[in-house]
């Protein structure tokens, strides 16, 4: 009996359908997973960059002298001077050193977690909340924005949700390992 090789064109192609993982839909197409990983890195870097620029005053959106390490107030300035629209007074009232710390922790935490592919559910909630609040503070409905409803804040929030919903941290990230940690198994919101 002789073995015959199956021609490459006749070999079984990998299955590229959706599968269920613990009750959640999971993208299994290799190309889609890789592009989601790239989108995850880009989205995470947006948040991490905001933290770095505001902390060290890299000269892009934050001047060196306005850096957090030089006494700058990353959220207070925005909340008291950049906020417009019907919530302007509310944001000015809430502005404090505590909002600086919370904002910077959110930018750092979401950025690092999303880049690493861990804690994507929590990152989606925190990051989306920050983006929604920033959208409300900038109130694009009144400033003649090219799209008053769906601006970059909304797109970033949607990307965070897509990344979390598709388990995008599993590809080129630490998502699978993270999910296997006992504390993450017990507390699903940490996924």
Walk me through this protein's architecture.
The chain is mainly alpha-helical. The chain has one domain. Helices cover 55% and strands 3% of the residues. The protein has eight helices and two strands. The chain has a two-stranded antiparallel ribbon with strand order 1-2. A hairpin with a 2-residue loop joins strand 1 (19-21) and strand 2 (24-26). Helix 2 (76-82) packs antiparallel against helix 3, helix 4 packs across helix 5 (120-138) and helix 5 runs antiparallel to helix 6 (152-165). The radius of gyration is 21 Å and the shape is globular. The termini are far apart.
What are the key terms here?
191 residues; mainly alpha; two-stranded antiparallel sheet; 3% strand; disordered N terminus
Order of strands across the biggest sheet? 1-2
Q: Roughly what fraction of the amino acids lie in strands?
A: under 5%
Low-confidence stretches: 1-18
Task: Please give the count of helices.
Answer: 8
Count of beta strands: 2
User: Main sheet?
Assistant: 2 strands, antiparallel
Q: Can you lay out the helices and strands and say which pair or pack?
A:
Elements: E1 19-21, E2 24-26, H1 30-56, H2 76-82, H3 88-94, H4 97-116, H5 120-138, H6 152-165, H7 175-180, H8 182-186
Antiparallel strand pairs: 1-2
């Amino acid at each position: 009996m002789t073995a015959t090789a199956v021609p490459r064109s006749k070999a079984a192609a990998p299955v590229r359908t959706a599968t269920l993982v613990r009750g959640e839909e999971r993208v299994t197409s290799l190309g889609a997973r890789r592009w989601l990983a790239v989108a995850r890195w880009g989205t995470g870097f947006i948040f991490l960059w905001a933290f770095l620029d505001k902390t060290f005053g890299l000269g892009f959106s934050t001047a060196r002298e306005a850096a957090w390490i030089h006494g700058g107030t990353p959220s207070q300035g925005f909340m008291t001077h950049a906020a417009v629209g019907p919530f302007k007074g509310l944001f000015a009232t809430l502005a404090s050193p505590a909002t600086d710390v919370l904002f910077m922790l959110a930018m750092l935490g979401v950025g690092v977690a999303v880049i690493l592919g861990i804690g994507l559910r929590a990152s989606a909630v925190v990051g989306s909340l920050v983006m929604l609040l920033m959208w409300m503070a900038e109130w694009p409905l009144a400033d003649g924005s090219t799209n008053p409803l769906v601006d970059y804040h909304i797109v970033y929030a949607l990307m965070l949700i897509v990344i979390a919903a598709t388990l995008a941290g599993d590809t080129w990230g630490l998502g699978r390992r993270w999910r296997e940690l006992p504390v993450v198994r017990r507390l699903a919101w940490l996924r």
